[in-house]
Design a protein that fits this description.
The structure is a homodimer of 299-residue chains. Chain A has 299 residues and is mainly alpha-helical. The first copy, chain A, has one domain: Orthogonal Bundle (Farnesyl Diphosphate Synthase). Chain A is 72% helix and 1% strand. Chain A contains 14 helices and two strands, in the order H-H-H-H-E-E-H-H-H-H-H-H-H-H-H-H. Chain A has a two-stranded antiparallel sheet. In chain A, strand 1 and strand 2 form a beta hairpin. In chain A, helix 1 packs across helix 4. The two termini of chain A are 29 Å apart. About 2% of the residues of chain A have low confidence.
């Protein structure tokens, strides 16, 4: 099975795995899946599996599906907390079906991911569970920080490390573990995933400030307005936070955006360097390209 | 390790397992645990382990902790959906910290249960995952039914089967599986758990109508008001649903409460009968007593 076939298989498994006689849960879940998304975590997991010498990509497909399901569940619950109405160019579940259905659909997806993971080893499950815990801790830290209205650089890194980089690291780690890789290969791929996750999230936060709403499929400035400032807003006076446009201009003019992108490139570079340990392969090259594309993107 | 020691160990593990550097999550989780609760699912799991011949109760403690954590997570998310302000005589998490924190604490507990389960076998994890899926499906079905304002007897049983009996069945099944029991013993204990769950939920719904608020630690009639009628309300004209007191009186007078309790006793009896297959033991006797106490209670 090649990568494209495996990704198509993930796509199909996303839809079949949420079958339920409670049809509302299937419908709402598929509404999210049908909106697309980059499928970055499953891709990363599958490539890590191959780069670590995994013999049959099909064996990693349920893991790749599970990690995308968990990511989707967290987006659904985020959209409730943020009162978001648009996601990937489509109405959010809370906007279309209400908060209760959104909450239950997120729960449903988490239980479905758990079910998909049950046949796998304790080691693989422990790695994913740790990332899931970190994800929820990161979200909570973000909510607390936004409410307090204070965000220093250290806290920002703790948040994105937990809420984003942990799941990217787990994706790579799971692929490597499932491939039966040696401990140093597993560690190298986890380091790769972690740094790609940091780079990816910083660019996400930059795009929230200076991105094109049409390319993004959602309004810009949403995080800024809610006080969920990413890296770019660290040096911004409180008074300016009221106007998104003024704030964006300020952040560009004072070099914050440039500094943030410099950081993102640094992490993407570290991700690529971590792969030096691995033997050359088309999967390794694809991972290096993926790290680059995480920072060089407009959506 | 005897049962009381094992239950004390579960209690302690509930608190330690939610340790987090995001202290709000620990605090909110422990707020729920400290309120007590019957710990019926862990007790049932531990007794099933012993009744199935399990040699060392300590081996089942993390499973018992995990199942109580999942139950608690579902209560926290229920309280959001029902806008409940009181649970076990204490403010709910949503009442005390707001909806967002309650949502994230429920998610956190679910990920912590997943983490506790990771070291266990695929078979045990698959059984618990199936029950978790059913739990969310049952909650969703209940929400849909309440919204539609229609509830027939068949749908009522589907709801309580999924939202309550599945997790009770899983508790017993997990105990038996962990004990290394033969398939027929596992099945007998699962049947026991399933029927205790049905009996328990029917009595819960009855107590919501005719219970004593002081003994329950929460207002009565809450489910009635929200259209989440249990069995007792099946034969009630819509017009009467507006007044809790009038409705309760009507349900008593027309024999619905009596019929519901008759049903509950029937399921408790089936639960006890399922244990005929097992050799006599103090654990088996305790399970039979537990089935009885699930129906003969005032809170």
């Amino acid at each position: 099975m090649d990568l494209d076939t495996a990704l198509a298989s993930v796509e199909s498994q996303l839809h079949t795995s949420v079958a339920s006689d409670t049809s509302l849960l299937s419908e709402a879940s598929r509404h999210m899946f049908a909106a697309g998304g980059k499928r970055l975590r499953p891709r990363l997991l599958l490539l890590a599996y191959s780069a670590a010498g995994g013999p049959e990509l099909g064996q990693a497909v349920p893991l790749a599906t599970a990690i995308e399901i968990i990511h989707t569940a967290s987006l659904i619950h985020d959209d409730i907390n943020d009162h978001s109405e648009l996601r990937r160019g489509r109405p959010t579940i809370n906007a279309r079906w209400g908060t209760t259905v959104a909450l239950l659909t997120g729960d449903f997806l988490f239980t479905k991911a758990y079910q998909l993971m049950a046949p796998y080893s304790s080691q693989v499950n422990a790695a994913l569970a740790e990332a899931c815990v970190a994800l929820v801790e990161g979200e909570t830290l973000q909510v607390e920080t936004a409410k307090a209205g204070s965000l220093d650089r250290e806290t920002y890194f703790r948040i994105i490390s937990k809420k984003t980089a942990s799941l990217f690291a787990a994706a790579a780690r799971l692929g490597a573990l499932q491939a039966g890789a040696a401990a140093d290969t597993v560690a190298a791929l986890a380091t790769y995933g972690y740094n790609v996750g940091l780079a990816f999230q910083i660019v996400d936060d930059v795009l929230d400030v200076i991105g094109d709403p049409a390319a993004l499929g959602k309004p810009v400035g949403a995080d800024l307005v809610q006080g969920k400032f990413g890296l770019p807003a660290l040096t911004t006076p409180t008074a300016m936070r009221e106007t998104v446009a003024a704030l964006a201009e300020h952040l560009v003019n004072n070099g914050t955006i440039e500094e943030a992108l410099r950081q993102a490139h640094k992490f993407a570079g570290r991700a690529a360097t971590a792969l030096d340990l691995l033997p050359p392969s088309s999967a390794r090259s694809a991972l290096i390209a993926l790290a680059r594309s995480a920072v060089e993107r407009d959506h």
